[in-house]
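In practice, a research group might receive sequence data for several interacting partners and want a quick structural hypothesis before committing to experiments. The following worked case mirrors that situation: the sequences arrive first, and a predicted assembly follows.
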Amino acid sequence: MISDNSTMKRTVAILLALVVLGTGLVALAAQNSGQDARIPFPKPGSHKGNWLEYHGRAVGASGNSPGQPGKACLTCHEQTDCFACHTTTMPRDHNNTWRVRGHGLMADGNRERCLTCHREDYCIRCHSETAPRTHTASWRKRHCTWCHYSGSYAPADNCVVCHKSAQHTSAPHPVNPSLNCASCHK
Amino acid sequence: MRSSLVIVMALLFPLLTYAADEVPAVLSSPSSSPDPSLSVNGYLSARYVYRTASYSEGRTSDQDLFGDLRLDITRPKDNRFEFHFLGSVRSDLDGNQDVSAFNPLEDVGDTYGKRTIGYLYEANVVLNEPVQHLTRVRIGRQSGTRDEPVFFDGVAMDLGSEKVNLTLYGGAAVHFYEVNAHWGEDTLQGAGFDYRPLPATGMSVDFLAVKDKREFTPEDATIYDRMVSFKVWQLFEPYTRVAAKYRLLDGEPRDLSLKASTAWQAANIDATASYFRQFRPQNELTTDLSLYYDVIGVSAPYQSFDIKVRKFFAERVAVDLGYFKRELLDSSDEGPFNKEFWRAYFDVEVMDLFLNNLSGTLLLEQWDSQGRSYDAVGADLSYKIKKNKKEARISIGTNYSLYKYDYYTELGVREQVRTWYLTGKYPLNNGFSVNGGYEYEHSFEKYQILRLGMRYDF
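A structural hypothesis for the assembly, expressed as tokens:
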């Protein structure tokens, strides 16, 4: 836990800003109580059921790309609606277990799908500033065999995702997990 | 600097108030010619999120505060200008920023070494037809200018007419997560030309140049990429569209994508088929165009096929069928980060199941990778309450996720994740609504998430 005056002040400033915004918007709402809703007619028939999960294909079908006709979505939605939602709402499969364990599966299988929302700096920032789940307190003792043991679950590729400048890129000799690496490698 | 977004958002408040004063009022002065009224749309949302995780080495928790502000200001009468804003702020309330050890609650949305972090996604002024043949000028932070999803601080201009359009744009590239980024070091410039010889036929040519100064690793330097793309499309009334796109990167063929989509309204069916082919290995590229080389290495050439069909029965039952296949052009390229696999799925959703507004979804899927096949079943049940036009909504349900192909075999990345959730939203007067939710995720770790929020749509 880090708790100093400056961060506390920043948090208070944010809360105050939100309170000010909220209060102002209450006043705004009171003035605009008769204003029309943003979309003044019923939703199209296609927007039923689990529409949110399938709207992506309709975007293509309606020709909403820049410079193209149709733009059916833009009849009601702003162009920025796409970014507003996609930047603040994650797909349903991005749950916590996905975040911690599963997202690499999709990245190696279908990078183009990830590229719909995520740029490379997104991955690098997280991988460079957060420790993977294997890096627990005892990790230092276990990492030799994890990375170099030629058994089924020792993909060195995993290590070099973050450790590109490691001083050795392959095990200097066959690794035997029954031995204690620390007896020689101080 | 990050937290300055909060201040920007707060400073926008007077603008909102001003705009509100002007809607739908009209200046009373008889000499005023254009209607000065403004239309202000958007939302302000704030939510508190409390998360806990129980795992083999203990239990941890995290508290965050999120704020989002979206503004779209237009002049409906003459549509001469628009203003668009989208910003997000996240504050870590309990200040746990220790990155030296694994924490199951860490994610890319964290505030890193700071207590507060903000992202400004859009803040631009649009001038519509300021002069003849200059149809639009957009100034400020923007995205979605052309097909490539790039963010930049700069200017974009559209020139032309109904049949011909030329877009010119450029400015400082925005990389939201780049380590040691300095504004203005990364730049991009682009141009796009659209021609529509017939109302249902079009073609486009795009050029995009990106300069990216990278500081991720010691050998990083400044990278330049130039992408040229050609696109043609054809609409067949009423609902069929075919499109093809071919891209060259730095003078070499990069990829080809073909897509066809159609709908048979009478039969209540829509279908999409697409094909994608990456011609060459993709190595290190600029952040805007990279296929994650710095994280997972070279992307080997491959092709993929994707087919999706959806049909409604009697307005209450929706059935989806889908198939996706990815195959490497050279199977010897297969490795930990270049995979071949296929996935087939079938799901059925029944609305008003037993009760009005009760819907159930069942998902069956099969994955196959490296000769191994995995089956998975998922289910979801949701119930909504709508009363007295208030449209209060409560959803309760569960879903199931299985992370499939465990190519690390014994390590077992197969996960069986059961999530239970309860969410609700209650609208108050004048666009205000409060919302909340609780989620319990059961796997090797156990996660609980509590969300409490308010939103004002205007």
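Before designing any experiment, note the following. Confidence is low (pLDDT under 50) at residues 32-37, 66-70, 150-155 of chain A. Residues 136-186 of chain A form one domain.
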